Description:
By secondary structure, this protein is an alpha/beta fold. 36% of the residues lie in helices and 16% in strands. It is built from seven helices and five strands; from the N terminus they run αβαβαβααβαβα. The chain has a three-stranded parallel β-sheet with strand order 3-4-5. β4, α6 and β5 (124-128) form a beta-alpha-beta unit. It is globular. The protein starts with a helix and ends with a helix.
Amino acid sequence: LGAIDVxxxxxxxxxxxxxxxGKYDVAPLSARxxxxxxxxxxxxxxxxxxxxxxxxxxxxTLPTLRSxxxxxxxxxxxxxxVARGLAAWPMLxxxxxxxxxxxxxxxxxSQEAIEKMLKPLSIYHTFIVTDHGHLSSALLRQxxxx
Length: 146
């Protein structure tokens, strides 16, 4: 629950994509969703939701989230591996003032390098550093804990 504490979040909503970018041979959304729910069902501040989008974009997904949570200020939790590509996100400039980013540091990335990449974007961000930066969904599946 590091992001909740570090960012002062009221709730974390997991949103698994139907067709995750850069991943192949992924389990069906229903199976991945059920795995998330089984892991978080004992945590009051964690929930999961399925959306219709094949892949999430700021243009299509943010309006859906605004309608679901009209009074919310959004913090998007991403890994530092994903943060490296933020400059290519369409519409980021237009909505960056409405969003915060919580960036979970992967063990292969340095906070200084990610900070340098983010500086030109002028986005508000917080780094989340835990002992789990080496974990990935693929590693969890291989170890049988996912």
